[in-house]
Amino acid sequence: MRGPRTSVALLVAAVLAAGLRTSAQLVPPTATFPLLESYLESMRTQAGIPGMSAAVVRDEQIVWEKGFGFQNLESRLRATPDTPYLVGDMTEMLAAVLLLQCVEQRRLDLDAPVRRYDLSQPEPDATPRGLLSHTTPPNAPVPFFYSPERYANLTSLVEWCVPQPFRKSVAHRVLRYLAMRDSVPGPDLANRDLELPEGLFEAADLERYRTTLDRMAAPYKVDAKNRAERTEWPRMTISASNGLVSTVRDLAQLDKALDGDGLLLEETREMAWTPAVDRSGTLLPTGLGWFVQTYRNERLVWHFGYVPNAYSSLIVKVPSRQLTFILLANSDGLSAQFDLASGDVTRSPYALLFLRLVK
């Protein structure tokens, strides 16, 4: 990730200068979201992010949503709440849901070595629990290391549990089930010459995916002087750790289902949102597919996405308040400078703004 720049100090200063030393007790409810909009727009401009989309979900309802800047600078097309972005690492949440459903069906043992499932894996002694929580092998120098590449090995485990391509499980068991109609299981589906297994998708669904990708936010690289340069968006396939294209409105649908009973049993969700423990009994910054930490005596469940010189994303949940903040961008500016992979979401001034203003 890129090193600190002057804009980081400006972003943090913008949050702290707001004087938000406590939660929204100091801010009348009717003024909260206009203030959030104002600060987010200021922070976006200071970071040189071309476009962002944001939403706040409370009690399983979208209570605020907004587009900032442009999803395409060349055409001057503005970002909106239904602008699609590549969400990067936040794809891990979907893989976790699919695997935990397998656990609920007793098809998968979280603590069994993956070799039990006759899979060719670089770490045959690794367990699904260890991969989901980014816990390192016993001989590793540190007990936790965030590695999307290692997490991607869970793709084949999902395919073992549900014998079909991973992207079909994502499409049918999550996107279709939750009516996430502006989400796409892999940006490579834009390629009309891509060879797909016969019957993988219905023609209407495949055309809808391609129409959605046609209006996907253009990716940009932002230099040290906040100048944005158009880049090419990755034509990757989807895996357990990357490749979902979505909108803040669709991710709000996912969030609502996670808080209810639509995807996981309550006890499974609580297990996933409980910090893992290392070999010495120390709490780690991850549960099963999500980051988990405590902030001002409340549990936060969160994740982020980082696609270098292209996209970034952030989701922060306060489960005790059924409150969620979702933010997507068409540069890497939400993640590149803040070392979120270390497991502390308060390194992000965007998360900190939300927590101090809206919570």
Total helices: the number is 11
Largest sheet: 7 strands, antiparallel
Q: What gyration radius follows from the Cα positions, in whole Å?
A: 20 Å
One letter per element, helices H and strands E, the order comes to HHEEEEHHHHHEHEEEHHEEEEH
The amount of helix comes to 25-40%
Tell me the β content: 15-25%
Helix and strand composition category: alpha+beta
Overall mean confidence score, pLDDT? 91
Biggest sheet strand order reads 3-2-1-12-11-10-9
Which residues form runs of ≥5 with pLDDT under 50?
A: 1-6, 20-28
Q: What best-fitting shape do the alpha-carbon axes yield?
A: globular
- N-end to C-end Cα span: 29 Å
The beta-strand count equals 12
Characterise this structure.
The chain is an alpha+beta fold and 359 residues long. It is built from eleven helices and twelve strands. The protein has helices at 6-16, 29-47, 92-104, 128-132, 148-151, 154-161, 166-176, 203-214, 248-259, 266-272, 349-357; strands at residues 51-58, 61-72, 77-78, 85-86, 184-185, 220-222, 228-230, 244-246, 291-295, 298-307, 311-318, 323-329. The strands form three sheets. It has a seven-stranded antiparallel sheet. Strands 4-8-5 form a three-stranded antiparallel sheet. The protein has a two-stranded antiparallel ribbon with strand order 6-7. Strand 11 (311-318) and strand 12 (323-329) form a beta hairpin. Helix 1 (6-16) packs antiparallel against helix 2, helix 1 runs parallel beside helix 11 and helix 3 (92-104) packs parallel to helix 6. The longest helix is centred in the first third of the chain and has 19 residues, at 29-47. The protein is globular. The two termini are 29 Å apart. The model is unreliable at 1-6 and 20-28 (pLDDT under 50).
